[in-house]
Amino acid sequence: MSREVSTEGRALIQQFEGLSLTAYRCPAGKWTIGYGHTDGVQHGDRITGDHADDLLRADLASYGNAVDQALGACAASRHEFDAMVSLAFNVGVAGFKGSTVLRLHRQGDRQGAARAFGLWNKAMVDGRLQDMAGLTRRRAAETAFYLTEDAPGLKHMPQAVAPPASVATNRSVIAGGVTVAAGAASVADQVIPVLNSIATTGASLKGVMQLGGATLSIIAAAGAAYMLWRYIRQRRRGEVLS
After folding, report:
1. CA-wise closest residue to 95 among 77, 124, 120, 131
2. Comparing C-alpha atoms, which of 44, 24, 46, 48 is closest to residue 36?
3. Which positions ≥6 away from 124 have C-beta within 8 Å?
4. Which of 89, 122, 131, 203 has the most crowded CB, counting CB atoms within 10 A?
5. What global pTM score does this model have?
6. What is the Cα–Cα distance from 240 to 52, expressed in whole angstroms?
7. How far apart are CA 39 and CA 173, in angstroms?
8. Which domains does the chain have, with CATH numbers?
9. Which helix (H) or strand (E) holds 129?
């Protein structure tokens, strides 16, 4: 079974093909309708939006199958595959099969294959081969898409996530730490004036002792909260294992 073009890949193709519900001649002279559909299109043809979606779905399946066959056993990421389908959709299956993009990709030269997209930016207009600004923009977008790394991870996220063992065994410590850390800001509001006072008096031991038991309790609580907050952050970053 051949691969399917992703939603992102489909959007890329739709963006550059545009949608027309009436037949028109493209700059190369081909009658076109819907999202770049050309097979059997004649002057005066009209379709609905739903019909355009159906045509695009069928075209993407056809071009996707052709690209899949051309790749053979050669691997391709989702973004690489979609970008090559977009190219084939625009230049035709024969053009893609003979392209430098395919040849270099099959050789494992990813950067070379990406650069080769830019070679396909010309079209025959009035009997002359001309650079097309629209094709240049499309090739640049396909190149960027081709080089985009696929997001790692599962296709569907699990709904029951198990915590790391070290976190699970210290659940009560973490829960208590969150409560203390949450109050750290209000404690700090009380401690900062005290620290300023210590700095003003020269930070002598005698000056600290004269601040009173209640003040010292605040400083001690703030220190404990800070140390526990720091411990929790290290645990979450994996810097502390137990």
Report:
1. 120
2. 24
3. 28, 29, 130
4. 89
5. 0.63
6. 57
7. 68
8. 7-147 (1.10.530.40), 165-236 (no CATH)
9. strand 128-131
List, as own/partner pairs, every contact residues 237-241 make where C-beta atoms lie below 8 angstroms and the sequence separation is at least 24, other chains included.
241/166
Dihedrals phi, psi of 30, to nearest 5 degrees = -90, 140
b/e sequence 112-142, b meaning 16+ C-beta within 10 Å: ebbebbeebbebeeeeeeeebeebeebbebb
Cα–chain-centroid distance for residue 118?
23
Give the DSSP per-residue string, 204-235: -HHHHHTT-HHHHHHHHHHHHHHHHHHHHHHH
Contact at 8 Å (CB) between 81 and 89?
Answer: no
CB atoms closer than 10 angstroms to residue 203:
11
Average pLDDT over residues 193-206: 44
DSSP 56-101: HHHHHHHHHHHHHHHHTT----HHHHHHHHHHHHHH-HHHHHT-HH
Distance CA 86, CA 142 (A): 7
pLDDT score recorded for residue 38: 94
Residue 99 near residue 91 (C-beta atoms within 8 A): yes
CA-closest candidate to residue 90, choices 30, 4, 6, 2? 30
What residue has token string 């389908």? 85
- Active-site positions read 17, 26
Q: How confident is the model at residue 162 (pLDDT cuts 50, 70, 90)?
A: very low
CB 234 within 8 A of CB 240: yes
* Residue 34, phi-psi category: left (phi > 0), alpha (psi -120 to 50), beta (remainder): left
